[in-house]
Amino acid sequence: MLAAALVALLCVLWFVCSRWRDVLSGRPVESLRSVRAPLLLIAHPDDECMFFAPTVLGLLREQRPLSVLCCSTGNYYNQGEIRKKELIQSCAALGIPSSNVTVIDHRNLPDNPDVQWDKHLLADLILTHIKQKNVDLVITFDEKGVSGHSNHISLYHTIGCSVMVLESVNVFRKYLSVLDLPISWLFHRDILFVSSGSQYTQAKEAMMCHQSQLLWFRHIYLLFSRYMAINSLHFLHDNKREKDS
Ligand SMILES: *[C@@H]1O[C@H](CO)[C@@H](O)[C@H](O)[C@H]1NC(C)=O
Ligand SMILES: [Zn+2]
């Protein structure tokens, strides 16, 4: 009974959200109008859809060009080669062609939460890519890295140009799915991307490309994670400005 009520509530809320998403997420259009070449910077194959799908789909909806730089092959269980392919498929499912996806495969940047990535090496590789592609905005994790994975956090600490970071929310909000929308709406700082129903489905389809990652707990993640439907981001320079003043 309670479950049914919850599901019904979720559906209603969602319907309302997807209808109002243009109002709710009106700011991306404005703040990102001048951006020419945004880059999504991730640590592992699957970050793009597990955490950033609403952003990716939101940007593509605005006809923004987008490319992806993934800093490891996700080789923790020796599945690097498979996971690289899964990333390409998943990006295609989201609407990013393989020509816009780059994977760094460096033995000193292993997919491993216990290894602190060498900041100089990482910075070198990322900045080279940024220059080559004339990237003017980098979108990546914030200092908490959403899941707390140290590779995610390394990315935050590495880049120095115009950067927008994905806000990590507490664990309670993280698994509220779309019920987190009112909270996100009230408290987001710069940009809010809310997926429509069809975009949510698209994100799930992209996640299905990561077959090697679909262990039982990931299915639970997919069901309840707010990051499958909602992304709130803020500009890093705003952050710095606040700290300076
Ligand atoms: C892929 O990258 C190219 C060159 O930066 C860009 O023109 C194009 O719009 C991008 N495609 C997508 C779907 O973002
Ligand atoms: Zn990751």
Automatic annotation (TrEMBL):
Record bears the keyword Transferase: no
Catalytic activity, EC: 3.5.1.89
Keyword set, alphabetical order: Signal
Keyword Signal: yes
One GO location term (cellular component): endoplasmic reticulum
Name under which the protein is recorded: N-acetylglucosaminylphosphatidylinositol deacetylase
Upper taxonomic lineage: Eukaryota, Metazoa, Chordata, Craniata, Vertebrata
Signal peptide location: 1-25
InterPro entries, alphabetized: GlcNAc_PI_deacetylase-related (IPR003737), LmbE-like_dom_sf (IPR024078)
UniProt record similarity statement: Belongs to the PIGL family.
EC primary class: hydrolase
GO MF term list: N-acetylglucosaminylphosphatidylinositol deacetylase activity
